[in-house]
């Protein structure tokens, strides 16, 4: 019970950090934006910024965010996911030499075939959203894993909700 409350508080804080009008983690000047990091040099976030090069795949995965979540049996982009995808598009526009692979995933409920199709729709929805934000379609690939690659395994909503996702993977650097 305490863990659920702590998780809810952390999630609320993360959403609040992303809700600023400053756009991405960086505003393009090398300074942190409203959704970025400020304050104490010894904070975990400041340490993380020093650990990753801003144009690295690790930075993308750990600080921009590479995962969004979906509702049960749905493939539409939720309001909670919009900020993450905007940050991804901003990072991709600053790093045009990278391509990405969007993985679509589903929870364990339903048949293998249904979940493969649902994962494909989720990956396509993310790809289309990023394209709408200006990412060239030629830089995007999609794949579906359905329920074959869960991040959490149990027969409860707490696990299923973690598996209903799309993961944007920085795949390779082009000619750079």
Question: What would you note in describing this structure?
Answer:
The chain has 176 residues and is of the alpha+beta class. The protein has a domain at 52-172: OmpA-like domain (60s Ribosomal Protein L30, Chain: A). The chain is 44% helix and 15% strand. The protein contains six helices and four strands. It has helices spanning 2-18, 44-51, 57-65, 79-94, 112-132, 157-163, and strands spanning 67-69, 98-105, 140-146, 165-173. It has a four-stranded mixed β-sheet with strand order 1-4-2-3. Strand 2 (98-105), helix 5 (112-132) and strand 3 form a beta-alpha-beta unit. Residues 1-44 have low confidence and may be disordered.
CATH homologous superfamily classification of the domain at 52-172: OmpA-like domain
CATH architecture of the domain at 52-172: 2-Layer Sandwich
CATH topology of the domain at 52-172: 60s Ribosomal Protein L30, Chain: A
Gyration radius, to the nearest Å?
Answer: 17 Å
- How many E-type strands? 4
End-to-end separation in angstroms reads: 49 Å
CATH classification, class level of the domain at 52-172: Alpha Beta
Overall pLDDT metric? 80
The low-confidence runs, each spanning 5 or more residues with pLDDT under 50, are 1-44
Across the major sheet, the strand order is 1-4-2-3
The description of the largest β-sheet is: 4 strands, mixed
How would you name the oligomeric state of the polypeptide chains in this document?
single chain
Count up the helices. Answer: 6
